Amino acid sequence: MKDFSVILKSLWRSKASPLLLILQIALTFTIFVNAVYMVMQKHEKVTAPSGLNETQVFSLFINLQETGEARVAEFEQVLRDIKDLDSVENAIPVTSVPLSGYGRSADIGYGPADEDKLTSSGYYGSNYDSKDTLDLKLVAGQWFERSDVTHSFFGAKSGGKILVSKALAQTLHPDNWRDVLGKTLYVQGDPQQVIGVVDNLKAVWSFWRLFDHAVLSPVFEIKDKVGLMVRAKPGTLDKAMLDVKEALLMTPGRQIDKLKPFSQTREESYRADVAELQTLQLVLVGLLILTMLAIFGQARFAILKRRKQIGTRRALGANQLQILRYYLLENLIVTLTGVVIGMVCAVLVNTQLVSYFGLTPVPADYLLVGALAILLAGQCAVIQPAWQAARVSPALATRSV
Amino acid sequence: MLSYYFKLAWLSLRKTPLLSVLMVGTIALGIAAAMVTYTVSYMMTKDPLPAKSDRIFTVQLSSWGPQQPYKVVDGREEIPAMISYRDALNLKTAAKAQQETAIGLFKSMSRAEQQDRRDAQMRMIRTIHNDFFAMFDVPFLYGSAWSEQDDSAGNQVVVITKALNDELFDGVNSVGRHIVLGESLLQIVGVMDDWFPIPRFYYLSSQAYHDPHALFVPLQYQINQEIFSRGDVTWACWQDIEDVAFSDFITSDCIWLFYWVELESAKDRADYMDFINVYVDEQKSAGRFARENLSRLFTIDEYLRWADVLSNENDMAVWLAFAFLLACLLNCMSLMMTKFYGKGSEIGLRRAVGASRQDIGWQFLCEAFLIGILGGVLGLVFAQFGLQLIQQIFTYLNDSIMQMDLRIMLMTLVLSVVASVLFGLWPIYRATRIQPSSQLKSL
User: Fold this and answer.
1) Using CA atoms, how far apart are residues A127 and A94, in angstroms rounded to an integer?
2) Which uninterrupted H or E stretch holds A231?
3) Do B216 and B149 contact (CB within 8 A), yes or no?
4) What pLDDT score was predicted for residue B314?
5) Confidence class of residue A9 from pLDDT cuts 50, 70 and 90?
6) For residue B443, what pLDDT band results from cuts at 50, 70 and 90?
7) Cβ-contact A110, A183 below 8 angstroms
8) Are β-strands B121-128 and B215-218 bridged in parallel, bridged antiparallel, or unpaired?
9) Residue limits of the MacB-like periplasmic core domain (chain B) (predicted)?
10) What span, in angstroms and rounded, lies between the C-alpha atoms of A100 and B231?
11) Contact B122 A256 (CB under 8 A)
């Protein structure tokens, strides 16, 4: 440890280049920790389960050509036709497809007035079969009865039953989300009775703050253009999609739109996030390489400058290991100083990010792991020059004195 | 002399291969990052129609209803970018511009005549006047635009893109063959060659970097067929039009069309604006256009800025990338410092046998220049990889915003050389200050 004070002294005597390095490390650390954290959060977001069966379900939109009550019959016939297909397990009408980017949000509150609004939520209307078709998991309360299912031309009627997602229940009752059961909730101003809670159901916009909030009602809508979600028998997704298309196009004037597997809907929904994620990762790799290069260059410079000094030390009896240890320690001190400054900056930057963009603060273990990673990178970068330094022959010193 | 210095520089680079690779690599990394972001930003914001950008305008009218403004932005009333069919028809009939076209959109099942009903696909169909093709310099591979007569009668004709022609007809000349839209048969009159205006300026800003839609038909065809894809296109009304007949919808003030005019020269802008103002006054006296007249003409650039397509977000990425380049250059500077310091004895020797400080300076400048060139070339290679990578990340955007043109490639090399020489100056200055005596001692 006697090297320690010597190193400090020698660093103090030529401040410029170690100082630059310290600043660069601090800057790298600041960006690194925040970016890694953003990457992890994004990664978590794009890999989070959607709550649906993602491998067997696909969705599509079709036009309905009849008007009035005949249109209801037409829609129900379409559903029956699809369910009759061999490759199809079940099919439901939907007002919109989760994660698809197209759909509706509803104001949620315990009263009809604007000031009663507590939060917002995605809204879906479907029928009794939605549980089986989408593989929804009921965590409290009960499912709809078949007799609860009705249709409308827009939205749910007052006084119906609804299911809510667990996240919405937690927002409404942070202490005990089960309290939501049996309550009369106003959905877009209409009173509805909450009869159950679904474990996980997302709204349609993945970028929405309240993406986890969803309300499911047993009221499907009859418009000139309607949505369907279909569950294929295991392993027959592609065939089921073709079969459905073929069956539907038997009707002249039938239009089919946005026929795609749910996995594709999901992928498109997170496309911007994934792009951002990959770009961030590229930046991180570039930054890390650059910092390692900087440490390497600086260490080499410092050693070249002190060849004679090293020779002298070797001549005075220092062995190779001691020289190696000296430079590793020197690098450790410089990097550590950079990391400590960087930690302060990272926390400062992060608090700004938190207050401006509503991000969650970086957990302490990110700072620690980040610090370790940079220290390790520094040591790796310095090994080669330090090893060269250790091999400086003592003769070098004697020759030039 | 200079060639001798370059030879020396080359030898010196080869003598310390690791250090040379690091220097060149560092510069290349920074240059690549900077040029990739610059390329994307440059390509995204370049003028899509340079030959006509000052004499092509989109018309925006104050046609909104009396109750409330269409939109309020920063406390000021905004008018919509789109106009109603009624106004588009009036402007087209007045024919005050050299060329003019309304631009609409609908969605329909579509297939080639030889395809099975099951192979039909839902596609967006662009509806326009035939002036569209000449105005926007659309190149044709086969056939041509449809005639004036097709326009006014709304004949069943269609122009398709090269991509669709490749998909449906294997790229052969398909003029005269047919496309089935919904239940009706449309004759192909033209096949466009590659045409990717970037940004795609002529319609909504939200998809400015997507490829043009594959099918173009006369606007009057859409009107004749009474097609309006309520749920799939952008439109707005200030009147209540729930369940109105199509004929009532198109005579209403509902907006759903863009309108573009080409004037003979930029000077005619004021005249055309006068015509628009007169038109607005006429409509006012007929009981329409109840709001204050905020009607205006926008050039492509003005429209894109107004619609926030040319945002500052790209600029920020470019700034960040250039900051990264700066960090790389500082790194390279410290590496050069190392390099030249290590050559202390050589410098001492050369100085002792008569080389002046300038000579030493020139020699190392050549070395910095060489590093810059090599860094630039490697940077170009890295940048191509970077752009490839970006293309894979942003598959939904048009590829041509991720390609370098010759100008940018040259710029890359120049930037690399200038940067490395500039950041070499300090190490070179330090090198020329080395005292011959102090170094010679140690030889």
Assistant:
1) 8
2) strand A225-232
3) no
4) 60
5) confident
6) very low
7) yes
8) parallel
9) 20-223
10) 14
11) yes
